Every structure is written in structure tokens, then in C-alpha cells.
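Usage

Read records sequentially. Each one opens with the input sequence:
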Amino acid sequence: MSGVWVFNNCVYRLESSPKRRLLVHLASGEAVSSYSSLENILRDLGWERYYGGDPDLYQYHKQSSIDLISLPKDFSKFCSVHMYDIVVKNPNVSHVRDM
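and closes with the structure output:
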């Protein structure tokens, strides 16, 4: 249980403080800050855009695998679940760090 206890009107309440996470490309040491930079990394790893799926998602597939990476089109909704999906499907390429 993490967060900050706040006392207000004679009541204690736990307010969670969500940690912001970053996907960091290990080779360059840079945090992924946009889909264009992420797409360049994925393309270098052999991932290609897949256009046959959900129109609300960016999807990438690799011809040598059955894996599919699905990301929300809105980068502000890119969260740790998506980051860990990328890390698991591309070991030793990127890392998720707390900000």
C-alpha cells in the first residue's frame, strides 16, 4: 500500500500517488517519448506495422513470430502494461523505469 495519508475534516484518507513509468531504450539510453521514436526502434528489431486490426490501435507484428504488439493511438494512454509487453517480446532491448 503506497501513497500519502491526508487528514481532512477529522478523517484520514490514503491518497495514492501513481508512479510515472518510462520505457527506456537500452542501446541509446533514451526514454521513448513518442510513437515515432518507438516505431523506429521496433522497425530496427524487425517489427512491421499491421493494418488489419482495430482502427483505434497501432499494431506491430514480426514475420518470424506469432506475437502482436497493440498500442493505443493516443500516446497519453501508453502505460506500463504496454511497456512491459514490448519488453517481454524484445528482451534485452528496453527497460521500464520509474520516473
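Summary fields computed downstream for this record:
- The helical segments are 35-44, 80-89.
- Residues 21-98 form one domain.
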